[in-house]
Design goal:
The protein is α+β, with helices and mostly antiparallel strands. 18% of the residues lie in helices and 34% in strands. It contains ten helices and 30 strands. The strands form six sheets. Strands 24, 25, 26, 27, 28, 29 and 30 form a seven-stranded antiparallel sheet that branches. The chain starts with 7 loop residues before the first strand and ends in a 7-residue tail after the last strand.
């Protein structure tokens, strides 16, 4: 499915503006990546099908999707890309030549927008909402990368890009919808163009301003318990939300992994004092319920962290901070004393982190363990979320989901009875355990399972009320879930199988 892309208009000179985001412009050709019903098609901006020319871009995403980006051709020996090389790839038509060039001149799809996802048209969403959706999606291979951006500082980025010999900068209104001619290009007339191959595209952050800018951190690759890695360092996985703390000569700001600034929601941040000039600390925000019994080990609830995150008014923040105290366990440092730390190993960064941070009421450094399997079993025994593992020798690639940092969740299982069915809107089965309501299953099982359930449940109807159909709770199923919420509900329940005999055809 082809969507005509938004076009660029040229600005007379570099500029900065708080309502704009700015991205490096890649010297290639525009490409619309379309995956519909699993079938991949690639189009130029003029609706020419170029699927055959780029076999390295045939890796499928997990869901149907339409992406807007630029194809860049990189010389694997020099890291230099120029427009003529891109045209060589584009103009190759014979299968033998395409195969040869895909090895000698591989391409990267540098993605800067998402137009459709899971059959939903996203073009009427503001740009930053589309960016958030794009950043949450796993890339299917090394031939795909997402272009980094900064907010507001267009002139600073232009100066850096020009010094690197890249083509220019694209500025976009952060609240814009996907309508033609709202991008602005600031061009540098330099040739050749230096570009980054898939992991290298993320290293562009090394030349972008980092401090006091929203960053997209390296995300965790999920693994199964059987895949726990030997030789990796391991830590417990905290049940809160990711936070990046920026320290600038005593001033503190904090951002979520999606770029939302949350500084004013957490007065605990103001207590942070470090023996360094500047730093960016990577960690998690959790919350301690101060009403818990003092003679018992503190119990952490994801609900409490979310309650703190969702409290925004100043008076409400002051009030909730007296009962739910925020704390920030750290595991990494990305920036220290005006220098990015992205290129050094994890263990080197840990040494710098331990020198910069002392454990306090606000901050702590997450302990590391050598035996990941033993730590996972302990986490499961204690009902904790799971573990995180780190490659001790690896650098950081921002805005990627890397195999150098992985998570293994300690899922729990329970037998539930299906007691109700949502009739309107999205899918939902109400779940009970021995008559006690434990939440709603909102991740739909397979079509075959739903069909078999519907056939049987027609005979079990009790009554209907407010968009729900209530049935006799005699159909049992095995449910996988992350943990119990503070109110005793199942967090993120997923259907595994029926326990009650039922025909699934």
């Amino acid at each position: 499915m082809f969507i005509s892309p938004m076009l660029l208009t040229t600005a007379p000179s570099p500029f900065s503006h708080s309502n704009f985001i700015f991205e490096p412009k890649v010297d290639g050709h525009r490409l619309i990546f379309s995956q519909q019903s699993g079938v991949i098609r690639l189009y130029t901006r003029h609706n020419n099908d170029c699927t055959r020319q780029y076999p390295e871009l045939h890796a499928p995403f997990t869901d149907d999707i339409i992406l807007d980006g630029e194809v860049a051709c990189v010389d694997p020996n020099t890291g230099i890309s120029d427009f003529e090389a891109v045209m060589t790839r584009f103009q190759a038509k014979k299968a033998e030549k395409i195969k040869r060039l895909s090895s000698t001149l591989p391409v990267t799809l540098v993605i800067f927008d998402i137009l459709q996802y899971k059959c939903r048209d996203l073009r009427r969403l503001p740009l930053m909402e589309r960016k958030a959706i794009l950043s949450s999606i796993d890339m299917p291979g090394n031939a795909f990368g997402v272009t980094p951006y900064i907010e507001g500082a267009g002139e600073a980025l232009f100066e850096q890009i020009e010094s690197w010999g890249m083509e220019g900068v694209v500025g976009s209104i952060s609240i814009k919808l996907y309508i033609k001619k709202l991008h602005i290009i600031l061009s540098c007339s330099n040739d050749p163009i230096y570009l980054f191959s898939p992991p290298m595209i993320c290293s562009l952050w090394r030349v972008l301003p980092m401090l006091n800018q929203p960053l997209k951190p390296m995300l965790l690759q999920p693994l199964q318990p059987s895949q726990i890695k030997k030789g990796f360092k391991s830590s417990l996985k905290w049940d809160g939300f990711r936070i990046l703390i920026h320290y600038d000569h005593g001033a503190v700001r904090a951002f979520t992994r999606h770029g939302t600034e949350v500084t004013l929601r957490f007065p605990e941040l103001m207590k942070i004092k470090l023996p360094v000039m500047t730093a960016i600390l990577d960690g998690e925000c959790i919350a301690f319920d101060l009403s818990q019994a003092k003679d018992q080990p503190p119990k952490l609830w994801w609900d409490d962290a979310m309650a703190r995150f969702n409290t925004k008014k100043e008076s409400a923040v002051k009030q909730i901070a007296t009962t739910l105290r925020a704390h920030f366990p750290l595991w990494d440092i990305l920036f220290l004393d005006e220098k990015p730390m992205l290129n050094i190993s994890f263990m080197q960064r840990r040494e710098l982190l331990m020198a910069a941070v002392e454990n306090s009421e606000s901050l702590s450094i997450t302990p590391l363990y050598d035996d990941g399997k033993a730590l996972f079993l302990k986490a499961k025994e204690l009902g904790l979320e799971g573990i995180v593992q780190y490659n001790p020798d690896a650098p950081i690639h921002l805005d990627t989901r890397s195999k150098n940092m992985v998570k293994v969740k300690a899922y729990q299982y329970i037998t539930c009875q299906i007691s109700s069915v949502r009739l309107k809107g999205s899918f939902g089965w109400g779940l009970t355990v021995d008559g006690r309501y434990v939440g709603v299953l909102e991740f739909p099982p397979s079509t075959e399972v739903i069909r078999a359930f519907n056939q049987v449940s027609k005979q079990l109807i009790r009554h209907e009320d407010k968009g729900w159909r209530y049935i006799e709770p005699v159909l049992s199923c095995k449910i996988k879930f992350q943990c119990f919420t503070k109110e005793g509900k199942l967090r993120s329940p997923k259907f595994e199988e029926f326990c009650t005999p039922i025909s699934v055809q």
